[in-house]
Amino acid sequence: MSSTVILSVLYSRFDQRAGPVPACWHPLGSQKELLEKAAIASMNITFGADELPEKVAIIPVPGGSSKIVVRCIKYRDHSSRGNRGESTLSLVVSEAGDAVLYKYLPDFQPIFDDYAKKIATREEGKQPVEPSLLAAFHDAVSRRVEELRSHELGQRGDVAFPDEEKGGGAEKGAEFAFKIIVIGDPSVGKTSLILRFTDHAFRQTYLPTIGTNLTEKEVTFGKRKAKLVLWDIAGQTKFNTFRKGFYNGARGIIVAFDLTSPETFANVRAWYDDAASVVGKMPCLIIGNKLDLADQRAVADVDIQALAKELGCDVILTSALTGEHVDQAFIDLAKKIHQSLP
Fold first, then answer.
1. Three-class secondary structure of residue 209 per DSSP
2. Is 2.60.40 the CATH number for 6-156?
């Protein structure tokens, strides 16, 4: 990954007077205003959390064209409330090349974990976290990126990482690439729908998405081939500040709700309006999920059709558990996107 992709490595703490602040960074000449915004964005994850997430997350930096890959850190600190200190380790990255991080995020988790432990040890020993430690972290991440790049070049023989601004880039053989955002309330089955479509698997345990997950799949309709880049966007309220940053570049919208939950259906309009306020009017599909729970059905077809007509969206009812209508939903939307191209 070139230096234009990794803009900075940042270590942030919460100051009792100033709030979230950059405590240490590499390189030392990094833009201070960007670091301050990134520090606030990274520490927002820790606010009000009983347990800090240990998984690496990707979130936008508000008001800019960059994102942060962030790992929360907790350590013993007897001088703080609850005897616990909280901080974050982040990569500040350019949106122009962040697709590699979405695609291979689990590969970077061990590196973040290793340096999070080193930082926690230094904090508990009242030793400073110095730029040299962050420089070593930067080098470790960069080496892993080059390993992944070399692997993909060997596997595919072409450019490894797609350009988000072009909708995710096209795999060899694909004529088009479409970014599709998948939105809706928490626990309606967004991630399970995507897993069913891309891997024919169902996630039995609900695991809330942190920020967003990105998944790709090539589809064929007629004589056309297209790669769908599916952005599974978190529905939790605490991500409201960041969410709109993930909408840019979308060619299609999926709004999902739970057929057994009228509340999730009532929120479909708000989700659609939120996305449309950023990307405008474009091909949209409303998915009513959990069709397999017929005896618990709580949303009427007539209400679904009325809302779909009002918003100008197609609608399809699915079951991520059984796979019913799932492939059809994504392929139909891909066709609509293709038909809408100038």
1. coil
2. no
Closest C-alpha to 89, from 112, 66, 123, 64: 112
Q: Which of 47-56, 85-94, 232-241 bottoms out in mean pLDDT, i.e. has the lowest?
A: 232-241
Structure tokens at 289: 């999920």
Structure tokens at 182: 């998948």
Q: Which of helix, strand or coil describes residue 97?
A: helix
- Cα-Cα-Cα-Cα dihedral sign, residues 62, 248, 193, 162: negative
pTM of this structure: 0.57
Q: Does pLDDT of 259 surpass 70?
A: yes
Q: What is the token pair recorded at 65?
A: 């064209």
With residues binned 3-state (H G I as helix, E B as strand, rest as coil), the percentages for the chain, rounded to 5, are: 40, 25, 35
| Rounded CA separation 246/211 (Å) | 9
166-340 CATH:
3.40.50.300
Per residue in 165-214, pLDDT (tens digit) is 333 333 445 577 889 999 999 889 898 898 888 876 554 444 444 556 77
Which residue in the block uniquely carries the two structure tokens 């992709």?
A: 5
Q: How far apart are CA 10 and CA 259, in angstroms?
A: 43
For helices 268-279 and 301-311, the axis angle rounded to 10 degrees is: 20
Give burial (CB, 10 Å; 0-12/13-18/19+) of 52: middle
**Dist CA 22 CA 117 (whole Å):** 19
What would the two tokens of residue 189 be? 């089955």
Question: In one letter, which amino acid is 268?
Answer: V
> What's the DSSP call for residue 61?
P
Domain boundaries, the chain: 6-156, 166-340
Does the N-terminal peptide bond of residue 27 adopt cis geometry, omega within 30 degrees of 0? yes
Fold match between domain 6-156 and domain 166-340:
no
Task: Confirm if 178 and 334 have CB atoms less than 8 A apart.
Answer: yes
